[in-house]
Design brief:
231 residues, alpha+beta, Glutaredoxin, 2 domains, four-stranded mixed beta sheet, 6 strands, peroxidase activity, Thioredoxin_domain
Length: 231
């Protein structure tokens, strides 16, 4: 097992010229050789664990987000189970919302639909993303969620398959949205259902609104209109 891990570390360091710790320059060939020696020779257990962690993280990110780590690269499924990404919405303004059917904020579906109807022809796409991370408030199947949304709120904006927005099973999209690396202003765990991320036409998050801020509130509308005005 150790030999397999050492081989993975070696290949990672050969293929990925990462920055030298504490330095802004990229690894030279000599630096890489020294790192490979450290990884496959007799390093301390702590160094070895850190290097192996880098391999696992890089592999996970590449598998889920593609080589660019773009918002549009994350693999998802529609509420009907079809594989998809957010790539069809490139050039659009996106409002991404983790939704739930049995939450005190569930009536926000009505405002989401109203805002979508008003601005969809101007380039806004609202994406509902069901998640059952909070108080078992989205316990149904995708089919049940779709039926509920259609019958009670006549939802016409895109809905995705149920995912997890936090914890060990967090979907990569939400790992990206809540990461300080993406934007420290919007970083941090999702606290509850109906957290909203506004994404500009360039695919970059531009605002985060907490659950109590309704989709039709002045601050959300102002942010949406500002992004729609950018071509």
């Amino acid at each position: 097992m150790r030999n397999e891990e050492d081989s993975s570390i070696k290949m990672f360091l050969i293929d990925n010229p990462v920055p030298v710790l504490g330095c802004s320059k990229r690894m030279t060939n000599r630096d890489r050789k020294l790192s490979i020696m450290a990884a496959t020779g007799t390093p301390g257990d702590e160094m070895r664990k850190q290097l192996l962690g880098m391999v696992m993280l890089a592999t996970s990110v590449a598998a889920n987000a593609g080589s660019t780590g773009s918002l549009y690269s994350f693999h998802m499924k529609t509420i009907d189970g079809a594989p998809t990404t957010l790539a069809p919405y490139k050039g659009k303004v996106l409002l991404l919302v983790n939704v739930a059917s049995a939450c005190g904020f569930t009536p926000q579906y009505a405002a989401l639909e109203s805002v979508y109807e008003k601005y969809k022809d101007k380039g806004l796409v609202i994406v509902g993303i069901p998640a059952n991370n909070f108080a078992n408030q989205e316990s149904g199947t995708d089919a049940e969620i779709k039926t509920f949304c259609n019958r009670k709120y006549h939802v016409s904006f895109p809905m995705m398959s149920k995912i997890s927005v936090k914890g060990a099973d967090q979907t990569p999209l939400y790992g990206y949205l809540t990461s300080a690396t993406t934007d420290p202003k919007f970083a941090g765990d999702i606290k509850w259902n109906f957290t909203k991320f506004l994404v500009g036409r360039n695919g970059q998050p531009v605002a985060r609104f907490e659950p109590a801020t309704t989709p039709d509130s002045p601050q959300v509308i102002a942010a949406i209109e500002s992004e729609l005005s950018k071509k």
